[in-house]
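In this supplementary section we document a worked example of the pipeline. Step one takes a protein sequence of length 250 as its only input; no multiple sequence alignment statistics are reported here. Step two produces a three-dimensional model, which step three serialises into structure tokens for compact storage. The input and output of this example are shown verbatim.
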Amino acid sequence: MFWPAEVNVPRRNRVLRLLASGSGKWIVGTGDFRRLANAVNPREMLTDLPNLLTLSRIAAIPLLVGLVAARYPVTDFVACVVFGAAAITDYFDGKLARSRRQQSDLGRMLDPIADKLLVGAVLMMLVGMGRLSSFALYPAIVIMLREILVSGLREYLAGIRIGLPVTSLAKWKTGFQMGALGTLLAGDSSARLLHLGFIPVSIVGEGMLWVAAVLTLVTGWDYLLAGLHHASAPKVTEAQARGTLPRPPA
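The serialised model returned by step three reads:
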């Protein structure tokens, strides 16, 4: 039997026991088999290290909200540290999932959700607490609208079994965005707390937010074009996908 490389040995053994017990069925195709392997023990998937890192970003949101709402210099600094740690997990969860062969549909679902919840919560807190100038409100709106646009595109493309890969430019956008939000969470109050009041932290953060917004527009446009391309492409039936019927001309 052909085993996908992504299915590690413990999961292979559990699937074999499942099939041998008669509670499963023999299936053909790597995608189907990978889904069965991942579905053997959902509780274990939640405790995989990559998924725990992803969930930690969601768990950090109430803490960040409370820290920002406190309006003390020390809580602003702690909020910056917590957000920075959460942002770092966004890099390591995917890297660990690939290196440990613990990629799963659950992780692919949770990762963008955690990112958008974290960014959305921080932006709303910064605006609600008056931590953004009126000039910086515009890039914040652009970033929020782009997140909604990409979420809608991913949902549509998932329905027709097409993934939306992350581009290198989108990774740069994420880097500037996370850096900007962390800097804005620290604010000028944290700079004074660390005796660095001569650094215009808020202005630097808003400048980074504008850079992130420009990259957001570019990557959002690319994703929109990709979604429109797939939406307007000729539909391929399941029989055609298996190769039993001819595909429509491109």
